[in-house]
Amino acid sequence: MADFLQRDPGLPAFWDERFERQFTPWDQGGVPQALRDFAAASAPLVTLIPGCGSAYELAWLAEQGWDATAIDFSPAAVAQGKAVAGAHASRVVEADFFAWQAAQPLQLVYERAFLCAMPRAMWPQVAARWAQLLSPGGLLAGYFFFDEAPKGPPFGISRVQLEELLGADFTCMADEAVSGSIPVFAGKERWMVWQRL
Ligand SMILES: C[S@@+](CC[C@H](N)C(=O)[O-])C[C@H]1O[C@@H](n2cnc3c(N)ncnc32)[C@H](O)[C@@H]1O
After folding, report:
1. Ligand 1 pocket residue status of 145, Cβ below 6 Å
2. Which of 113, 194, 97 lies closest to 157, judged by CA?
3. 181 lines ligand 1 (CB under 6 A)
4. Is the CB of 74 under 6 A from ligand 1?
């Protein structure tokens, strides 16, 4: 779609415009299977979902007994996320990932379509913030999008770039193929778990 007014994905207005016009090709429409599998094999973790969008994962994790918080800096995304979260709407919060403060230590940061929503120039800031939010042993787990196309979002990463981005502060614990990808990510995303060093 060529007629969007907002072109800078670093600004909330970019995402507001797309949520308001219901142009959300990144939206899974539900809880991804790899997260379901991960959660089934884990004790409940204090979890942050940055850039949550529709936040399907929030209510699902809460229903599994997890202490999860979802944040997004786009008011339109937050409205959508709260509607999806229903009884758990108060856990969907309007906040900038770079400024949000955790009320208690996080054990997990869940990643889906957040890093790839960011201009590549912002990736070092994202990685530094992940490292800041997690104590040693904490987990960064989710979907990572591998692609070389120059234009985005989504902005894909290479394995070398990802290792460069995370290698100083995290070690990779899991790196798995996924099923059930929606078209925009199909064949180009993997489930990964990185542990804070
Ligand atoms: C591509 S969408 C992905 C939404 C959701 N994670 C999903 O998988 O459907 C990226 C989301 O990140 C949000 N976002 C981008 N930068 C952000 C920031 N600095 N702080 C909080 N949210 C941000 C956008 O508003 C948007 O909702």
Report:
1. no
2. 113
3. no
4. yes
* Rounded CA separation 73/85 (Å): 17
Map tokens 């004790």 to a residue. 43
pTM score: 0.98
The CATH homologous superfamily to which domain 12-18+29-196 belongs is Vaccinia Virus protein VP39 (3.40.50.150)
* Residue 22 contacts residue 107 (beta carbons within 8 Å): no
Q: Which of 52, 72, 96 to mutate to test the pocket of ligand 1 (most atoms within 8 A of CB)?
A: 72
Q: Mean pLDDT across the chain, nearest whole number?
A: 97
Residues 24-33: tens digit of each pLDDT: 999 999 999 9
Give pLDDT tens digits for 14-48: 999 999 999 999 999 999 999 999 999 999 999 99
